[in-house]
Specification:
The protein is an alpha/beta fold. The protein has helices spanning 14-36, 40-50, 69-78, 90-102, 141-151, 171-191, 194-206, 211-220; strands at 59-63, 82-87, 109-113, 126-132, 152-163, 223-230, 235-241. It has 8 helices and 7 strands; from the N terminus they run ααβαβαββαβαααββ. A 7-stranded mixed beta sheet has the order 3-2-1-4-5-7-6, sandwiched between helices.
Length: 242
């Protein structure tokens, strides 16, 4: 089981703290994602959705959808019949709804508030489940993965994009210095919530990435689990089948 890391020093559950944190940083979330990743996050999302193209999913659930960037990319690249994006942060969802409406896609992409660990859908509902930078924030990682497996149709696929820890010298050292020391400063200046970006580094360090996460997916019940590293190990795409 992954170590529990929370953004704030309070008695609130991780789930409550995550909702509060993302509500706090929602107005700056998209800008900081692109700025702090030097724009690589856009290509990472494209590659994540591209990995599902050969399966031609028609009904997609985007868990921890945030401001709906991955859901929008899924619609652009795959043209499914329906996408539902679910997130615990209402402020993030409101920004996502505006982005979807501006593109005239409200008919195809629905956003809703909900708990990723208690998905409000019947079993065997979706052809694909996607997550970008979200599973690391689950209070109970195993429970969240089990829920994804439950709502997938037999033969359906899950695509999970998540930060990971580089291992190549000296990139590993430079990466750790930047994420541990520089990123919280930038986050404080822009979003006024330095705890959110201190949490990012700590949560990445605690996350069971690479082969460990592949093994966890298989323990949960997924099949043919694989992982592919992007940008010298900054993030990893995990793909598996129900």
């Amino acid at each position: 089981m992954s170590k529990t890391v929370k953004p704030y020093d309070s008695d609130e559950s991780k789930k409550e703290q995550m909702s509060k944190m993302f509500d706090n940083i929602a107005p700056w979330y998209d800008f900081l994602n692109h700025f702090l990743s030097l724009g690589f996050d856009i290509s990472w999302r494209k590659k994540t959705i591209s990995a599902l193209r050969k399966f031609q999913p028609k009904y997609i659930l985007d868990v921890a959808t945030g401001t709906a960037d991955l859901a929008l990319e899924a619609h652009r690249a795959l043209k499914p019949e329906r996408i539902i994006g679910l997130d615990i942060s209402q402020e993030m969802l409101e920004i996502g709804k505006v982005k979807i409406a501006k593109k005239g896609l409200s008919y195809a992409i629905e956003l809703m508030a909900g708990d990723s660990e208690i998905l409000p859908f019947q079993s065997n509902t979706f052809d694909a489940v996607t997550v970008a930078f979200g599973v690391r924030n689950f209070e109970n990682l195993e429970l969240g993965l089990k829920e994804m497996n439950r709502v997938l149709k037999p033969g359906g696929h899950v695509a999970i994009l998540e930060f990971s820890s580089p291992t190549l010298f000296p990139f590993k050292q430079l990466y750790n210095f930047y994420f541990k020391n520089m990123l919280p400063i930038i986050g404080h200046i822009t979003s006024k919530d330095p705890k959110a970006y201190s949490y990012l580094y700590k949560s990445v360090q605690a996350f069971p990435d690479g082969k460990q996460f592949v093994e966890l997916l298989e323990q949960i019940g997924f099949k043919n689990a694989t992982h592919k590293i992007f940008t010298l190990g900054i993030c990893t795409l995990y793909l598996a089948k129900k």
